[in-house]
Specification:
Helix content is 62%, strand content 20%. By secondary structure, the protein is of the alpha+beta class. It has 2 domains: 1-44, YefM-like fold (3-Layer(aba) Sandwich), CATH 3.40.1620; 46-80. Strands 1-2-3 form a 3-stranded mixed sheet. It is rod-shaped and about 65 Å long. The model has no long low-confidence stretch (mean pLDDT 82).
């Protein structure tokens, strides 16, 4: 995952000014909260999460279709 440096926020700043974190997510789609100068939490736009889940489900369907096509004869024999 590549993170824009402008999306980094310290834990203290996030705690004291959450509206800034929300604004960063609105602008960049993501915000990374640092704890002890290390990335600890990721906040992202919910619609982006849904897009990723749809893409993952599509990938699973594509892979399962490929496996089924590749081993169709074996599955037909097992079905007998």
């Amino acid at each position: 995952m590549q993170v824009n440096i402008k999306s980094l926020v310290s834990m203290t700043e996030a705690n004291q000014n959450f509206s800034k974190v929300a604004r960063l997510v609105d602008e960049n789609g993501i915000a990374v909260i640092l704890k002890n100068n290390a990335p600890r939490y990721v906040i992202l736009d919910y619609s982006k999460l849904q897009e990723d889940e749809i893409a993952d489900n599509q990938t699973v369907e594509d892979v399962s279709k490929m496996i089924l096509e590749k081993h169709l004869k074996a599955f037909e024999e097992l079905a007998k």
